Amino acid sequence: MKKIVSLLIVVALFCSCSDYQKALKNEDVAAKFEIATKMYEAGKYNKAIRLFEQLAPTYRGKPQAEKLFYMFSQSYYKTKQYYLAGYQFESFVSGYPRSEKVQEAAFLGAYSYSKLAPVYSLDQTDTVKALDKLQAFIDNYPNSEYIAQANEAVKILTGKLEKKAYENAKGYNTISDYKSALIAFDNFIADYPGTPFKEDALFYKYDSAYQLAINSIPQKMEERLNVAKVAYNNLLKFKSDTKYKLKAEEMNARVETDLQKFTK
């Protein structure tokens, strides 16, 4: 019995492959569409894509075009071809704004671009693009069933930009470019007030101000020491038991000692 079942499966697969090969060469678009649909429903998305690519130019404007382009978009998405999926879903939304699939397509189109966003250390152009797409979806469909997923994707993407900005600012501190570090940390804290990196950012801002002050020429030292003192107070105001407290207090002791020279 098992041998018979196995034989039937082999025959079915052979016939399926045979039908697919014939469909690739078949000029009958209706027959090609039927096989493409079967490939799609069977989860054979790469094969379906080849047929959809052949059908797309001749099916535009036809009654079954909506179904075809939805399956076409989904096939790209299922095979993780996210750039093409995003493009196809956007085209679907534009071409079929009254479709019952339009919200799903709009979400998956935007979400596809989020899949192209690289790790935070690389260029974040695609991340910004994905955020724009997702925000447009949220604005257009505020009551969509996909809102929670869209917001979660936005959170992840924003986290990448946040991490990138923080590491850039810290990088200036690392290479001892303290003036640039102060500007970068100010911008970071202003842009991401609720960031989980705030304690670190405030400390390294303080460290940058401190290093700049103690290495200053006498004419600029007092002003810069006071800037460092403010940065120290801001760190403790944010978190009085900061993990950097011991180091920060040692630095502040030096700041207070140096400031006394200017009060005599």
UniProtKB/TrEMBL annotation:
Q: At the top level of its lineage, which domain of life is listed?
A: Bacteria
Outer membrane lipoprotein BamD-like domain ranges (all copies): 30-218
Which Gene3D superfamilies does the annotation name?
A: Tetratricopeptide repeat domain
InterPro entries assigned to the protein according to its UniProt record, in alphabetical order: BamD (IPR017689), BamD-like (IPR039565), TPR-like_helical_dom_sf (IPR011990)
Q: Which Pfam families did the record assign?
A: YfiO
State the UniProt keywords alphabetically: Cell outer membrane, Membrane, Signal
UniProt protein name: Outer membrane protein assembly factor BamD
- Taxonomic lineage of the native organism: Bacteria, Pseudomonadati, Bacteroidota, Flavobacteriia, Flavobacteriales
